[in-house]
What we know:
It is built from 4 helices and no strands. The chain has helices spanning 3-21, 23-43, 46-67, 71-80.
Amino acid sequence: MEIDAFQQLMEDLYGEHDRSRGIPATVAWLCEETGELAQAVRKGTESEQLHELGDVLAWLASLANQLGLSLRDAAQRYVDDPP
């Protein structure tokens, strides 16, 4: 799946609900999921790691949607001028 399509899927599935929750709560959820990913990396199975990667990606897409930004554009930086 292309990143634009994934970002749109998150908008279609959760956009209205996520916007009603707001950006601060979305950032909090993203942080929580990042913590769960860190724990899965340390002690989890490959299946658990994959699950948590998906959760982090979904919350990141939600945040980008609420900010009106494109994950594709964010990733392009690494093509145009990698740090």
